[in-house]
């Protein structure tokens, strides 16, 4: 969970913030235990994935309980970038679904998880344009309607907003990176177009926030500009990282295609 509303009115983090941090760290512990279980039985699992997941979980926990420097809007944008963009990228790079499928013992959960991943609803949820709409479209609704201001005094609405920011960021990153097994693996054109469109919409939103504060809020002009600039350039950095993931996948796919073509030529020459 992200914004400053998770904190109590006192000096320290509130109960909701502590619960969010604890849940993030518990997820890290479960991941590391599952990875260790694979290695004990002789299966390979890169330690770099452990590092990615631990970093992502730690970033989520820190965003919940720590107050970033700067004004309130700038601090909020730091949390937005961490929870909605950077942490999801780290978590997805760790391939948690693949780990779960390999580490779970035979049983009901081992059957339910792949069935859910290969279901028709899951295939459409990871349709890259739809995932981009849910992610960046949700941010437009949050910042350019009365939703953000209305959520300040409604705990359940706050919780829904916070959950959406994280879930939509994870869904979009999952759909673009396409690292874990799902029913339909959308191709590079779909994923690249969704990344470009989401990046453009995110940048336009950041520029609009530079000019005008979210509805129903009153931030100092310097704080508003700093937060908007952070959103703009920080978003570019995460989107560049996603583009690098796509480029590596395209390069690897091209190498595999070339190797298959060479094998066919050698077979035909024999």
UniProtKB/TrEMBL annotation:
It is found in: Cell membrane. The chain crosses the membrane at residues 16-35, 47-66, 78-101, 122-143, 155-176, 188-210, 230-253. It comes from the Bacteria. InterPro entries: Caa3_assmbl_CtaG-rel (IPR019108). It is a multi-pass membrane protein. Keywords: Cell membrane, Membrane, Transmembrane, Transmembrane helix. Coiled coil: none annotated. This is Cytochrome c oxidase assembly protein. It comes from Streptomyces chitinivorans.
């Amino acid at each position: 969970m992200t914004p400053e509303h998770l904190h109590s009115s006192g000096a320290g983090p509130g109960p909701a913030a502590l619960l969010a941090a604890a849940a993030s760290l518990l997820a890290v512990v479960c991941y590391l235990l599952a990875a260790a279980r694979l290695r004990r039985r002789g299966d390979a699992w890169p330690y770099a994935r452990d590092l990615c997941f631990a970093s992502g979980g730690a970033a989520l926990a820190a965003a919940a309980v720590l107050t970033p420097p700067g004004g309130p809007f700038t601090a909020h944008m730091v949390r937005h970038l961490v929870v909605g963009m950077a942490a999801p990228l780290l978590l997805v790079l760790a391939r948690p679904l693949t780990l779960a499928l390999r580490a779970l013992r035979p049983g009901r959960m081992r059957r339910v998880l792949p069935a859910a991943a290969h279901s028709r609803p899951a295939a459409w949820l990871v349709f890259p344009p739809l995932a981009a709409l849910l992610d960046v479209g949700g941010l437009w609704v949050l910042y350019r309607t009365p939703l953000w201001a209305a959520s300040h005094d409604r705990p359940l609405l706050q919780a829904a907003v916070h959950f959406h920011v994280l879930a939509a960021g994870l869904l979009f990153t999952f759909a673009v990176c396409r690292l874990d097994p799902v029913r339909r693996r959308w191709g590079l054109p779909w994923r690249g177009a969704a990344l470009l469109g989401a990046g453009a919409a995110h940048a336009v939103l950041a520029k609009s926030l530079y000019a005008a504060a979210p509805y129903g809020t009153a931030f100092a002009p310097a704080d508003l500009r700093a937060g908007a600039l952070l959103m703009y350039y920080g978003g570019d950095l995460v989107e560049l990282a996603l583009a690098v993931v796509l480029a590596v996948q395209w390069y690897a796919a091209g190498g595999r295609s070339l190797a298959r073509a060479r094998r066919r030529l050698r077979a035909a020459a024999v």
